[in-house]
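Quick one, T. Sequence first:
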Amino acid sequence: MARIQTWDVENPTFWQTEGKKHAQRNLWISVFSLMLAFIVWQIWSVTAVRLNDVGFNFTKNELFTLAALPGLVGATCRIFFTFMPGIVGGRNWTVFSTGILLIPAIGIGISVQNPDTSYMTMAILAALCGMGGGNFSSSMANISPFFPKKEKGTANGINAGLGNLGVSVVQFVTPIVIFVPWLGMLTGGAQTLPDGSEIFIQNAAFVWVLPIAIMTVLAFFGMDNLPGSKQSFKQQSVIFKEKHTWIMTWLYTMCFGSFIGFSAAFPLLLRNEFPEVNAASLAFLGPFVGAAIRPVGGWLSDKVGSGAKVTFWDIVAMIAATSGVLYFLNAHNFVGFLTMFIVLFFTTGIANGSTFRMIPFIFDGKKAALAAPVLGFTAAIAAYGAFFIPKIFGWVPANAALTGFIVFYAVSLVICWYYYSRKNAEVKC
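Structure tokens:
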């Protein structure tokens, strides 16, 4: 396949005759590669729920830590991964960062079959899953330059939203695939549950090995390194001097940090707060809604002409939804709790899309080259939510944690209003 020689997507003629087909191809390969990255990143959110059932003896805090560690490592990886497409090329980095996911996938599949596997080994494997979380920043920094400004909100929303679906995919598929005998017998045999039934917990990881290998090959042959897009770390590090880098990092942490943190904690939270319901298999619903609606947040912002307005009103809805979750938790009403949590996931998804649409408009003109690394860096810091939120639920009662999140969202509402959505705001975006 011939490589791209020139790139000028703001030229309507070039976009329609040449740019669009390349951009769409790279986008869709990126989407499925990113989805697998999220799957690997969040494997522990559902696998940890089953470990003690097959002979392990981990404490509640240890299990929440296994669900949280990929978030800590993933967020840290994002800081560095942000700059890699600009340094080595987007195609090159996608090939490497997708292929390396095979290491934790295979390692987990082997280790979960032996209850004598040490907690340290499990923790290391959980940390290695963080590489999947790192891929989001590099993916967004890579895809954004492929599209003209008028379509960045939608394109970023598709890449991020469908990629985020990996969270719900792994939480939906895992409870099913761990009971598939033919796959389990090919990869090590069964484990026995307390009720005497058989389970194949290794399937939760091994089932993704072939798709990862396939997408690595597709990325190698189907993606492109954009000409003129490479920048040194020094050139990209200018973003740290920009005030709006840090403001948008706060706002994106508010929404995506909540989405990925709640996703990591939700299965264990359901099991701990409503053990009589056995509802962990429903945990995928929240991340599914949040990820699926994300492209709508970007699209709606494009249509309204202001990501800031969409973000502002969405934060209001986040505060209301979290208050509803807290109310039904205190009432020990499972249906109300689940419903309001799904609404909360919905609101995080809308804001995920709308905030990412804001960034290319804040960093415009002479600062346009900074938009891609800012997208990646804000995503990096926000991903720490995948570590802190499960840990918070492990440290303090759930009602105290939710109260703290309401305060955080209220502060975020004021910040969004002051800098971006009020009549005389500093930047209209």
